[in-house]
Amino acid sequence: MGYIYLYTGTGGGKTTNALGLALRSVGHGRRVIIIQFMKWWKNTGEYKIRKKLAPNYEIYQFGRKGWIGLNNVGKEDKKLAKKGLEFARKIVNKKNDKQNTHQQLNYHH
């Protein structure tokens, strides 16, 4: 049985909380899959560390290049978010009890 954590709000700390929990899980030998929505930048610590923490840590990003802001969400963004949700559904349905999936999605329109 896994857990779902939802971090929300306009301030900082959501990614930091999710990554802290992910790191602790990897330290306990669990497999962690990070799914980021509306993010594309590969020059972040959470993305760069993936090879060092593999195979227990994976990260996937579903977003187009550039920061578009929540007021400028377009068809391409929604298409990528849907693709990310479909990907997440496949991962969660694998029912691996040694796996944590962390997703970052909280869009209100």
Write up what this structure looks like.
With 109 residues, the chain is α/β, with parallel strands linked by helices. The protein has one domain. 37% of the residues lie in helices and 17% in strands. The protein has four helices and three strands, in the order αβααβαβ. A three-stranded parallel sheet has the order 2-1-3. The chain is globular, with a radius of gyration of 14 Å. The termini are far apart. The relative contact order is 0.25. The mean pLDDT is 83.
Q: What is the rounded distance between the termini?
A: 32 Å
The succession of helices and strands, N to C, reads: HEHHEHE
Give the overall average pLDDT: 83
Can you count the beta strands?
A: 3
Judging from the principal axes of the Cα atoms, what is the shape? globular
- Number of distinct helices: 4
Uncertain ranges: none
Calculate Rg over CA atoms: 14 Å
- The secondary structure category is alpha/beta
Number of domains: 1
Q: What is the helical fraction, as a range of percent?
A: 25-40%
Query: How would you characterize the largest beta sheet?
Result: 3 strands, parallel
Proportion of strand residues: 15-25%
If strands are numbered along the chain, what order do they take across the biggest sheet? Answer: 2-1-3
